[in-house]
Amino acid sequence: MTQRSTHWPLVWLLLWLPLAYTAAVSEVVPGTLDVRWNEGAKDCAATSQPPLQVHAYEPQTIILRQNPCADFEANFLYLLIGSRKALLIDTGAVADRNRMPLAATVLQLLPDAGGTKLPLLVVHTHKHLDHRSGDVQFQGLPGVQLVSADLDSVRSFFGFSRWPEGVAHLELGGRIVDVLPAPGHQSCHVVFYDSRTALVFSGDFLMPGRLLVDDAAEYRQSALRLIDFLEARPVSHILGGHIELDARGDTYWFGTQYHPNERSLALSNADLLALPAAFDHFNGFYARYPDFVLFHSTRILAAEAAGVLAVVVAGVWILIRLWKRRRLRMRRSSAGSESSPPVLLNKGSGGR
Ligand SMILES: [Zn+2]
Ligand SMILES: [Zn+2]
């Protein structure tokens, strides 16, 4: 009797855990990624594609994509709408509101709340310019709070006292968004997890493209922390900041404004799980995987610069050798002409 009763907590836990997990999964709001993103053009002057494409994943989760012709970075931005507040993740690569009507579009998408628009919080995945150039369009707008992308602002706004440890929570009203530090691509990178849709917004930390590595050890640790955080949570998709691969897995040329046959935007939890092992085998320069490419830009640039320098040095060495040889040949021929007897012209031989 006594023995049986000691097992009750364990039995209860075994019964409760699957039920709790099922409840969490069933609460996830589904959405659709059935959309064809505009591909930009070979001749951007001749295209009529709009600068900004808007797709509703579900009514309260909006994906905005900047056209490759507006800027080759072609960023993805995300608008999450709660009952009390909306959240915009990243402002993209274009500052000029005439070329990229970002703030106007976002404000239009916001629902009304008591006669005014829902308050908007603007945050960033990280500090790179292609993720925050549109900030100027939101500065000073009523009802808009803009968090600067520098590390001090990110730490103090989200309350990260032990960066890069910890998780912050944004309450949008019936919708909690978790924020996790994820340095490695850039020192103040964060990743967002949305409780409503189970979407992960991963910026440039994980996307179908070149994962530019700034600090490989930090990158790997960030991946492990994110895996640990997501282990007990459902993940619908991982949505990054760019698409830089085509459907065959080949990268587009850096700087191109034409993205024909793009790979789909979404990565999966399996891609995240593969990341630590990818870093374990990383040669420090370049590694290609089916859904992403590890790329240490500064080291590759340094290696390329060293290669160019070696070619220049070799070229100069060859030129010096050729010049020396030529000088030697000239010296020999002039010495030969000085030692040979003068040629006497026989006046008689040239007569008509
Ligand atoms: Zn970046
Ligand atoms: Zn980027």
Provide the structure class.
Answer: alpha+beta
Overall number of structural domains = 2
Helix segment count?
7
Please identify the top-level CATH class of the largest domain. Answer: Alpha Beta
Number of strands: 17
Small ligands present: zinc ion
CATH topology of the largest domain: Metallo-beta-lactamase, Chain A
Radius of gyration: 31 Å
**What order do the SSEs take from the amino end to the carboxyl end, as H and E?**
HHEEEEHEEEEHEEEEEHEEHEEH
Indicate the mean pLDDT.
89
End-to-end gap = 144 Å
Output the CATH homologous superfamily of the largest domain: Ribonuclease Z/Hydroxyacylglutathione hydrolase-like
Instruction: Give the low-pLDDT segments.
Output: 1-5, 10-25, 342-352
The oligomeric state of the chains shown is: single chain
What is the CATH architecture term of the largest domain?
A: 4-Layer Sandwich
The percentage of residues in β strands lies in 15-25%
**Which strand order does the major sheet show?**
1-2-3-4-7-8
Shape: elongated
Largest sheet: 6 strands, mixed
* Helix content estimate: 25-40%
